[in-house]
């Protein structure tokens, strides 16, 4: 799992330069595309404009999900990728969490 987290971070770092001028919803869809491309998800990533969220489901522990969340937020902040149009967040679920989040992070604004 750690190798996939590192890969995800590198992909986000690579993509972040191309999203600086886009609006938050476009950035959210690009972030979803990155998640979908990793092979980590147990179902397709979803963007909710009304909830200002990027929702992912990963077969992992809550401890690892929190680390993934923090790492992604840190990389986006470092690369100055900001979600300005609302209180955007990443919500991580497990396929076994009965619809409850196992990690929740605010995206940089």
From TrEMBL:
Residues 1-21 form the signal peptide. Keywords: Signal. It comes from the Bacteria. This is Uncharacterized protein.
């Amino acid at each position: 799992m750690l190798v996939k987290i590192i890969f995800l971070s590198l992909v986000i770092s690579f993509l972040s330069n191309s999203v600086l001028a886009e609006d938050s919803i476009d950035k959210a869809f690009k972030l979803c595309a990155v998640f979908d491309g990793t092979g980590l998800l147990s179902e397709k990533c979803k963007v909710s404009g009304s909830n200002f969220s990027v929702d992912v489901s990963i077969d992992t522990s809550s401890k690892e999900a929190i680390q993934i969340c923090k790492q992604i937020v840190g990389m986006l902040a470092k690369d100055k990728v900001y979600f300005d149009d609302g209180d955007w967040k990443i919500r991580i679920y497990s396929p076994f969490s009965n619809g409850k989040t196992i990690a929740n992070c605010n995206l940089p604004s």
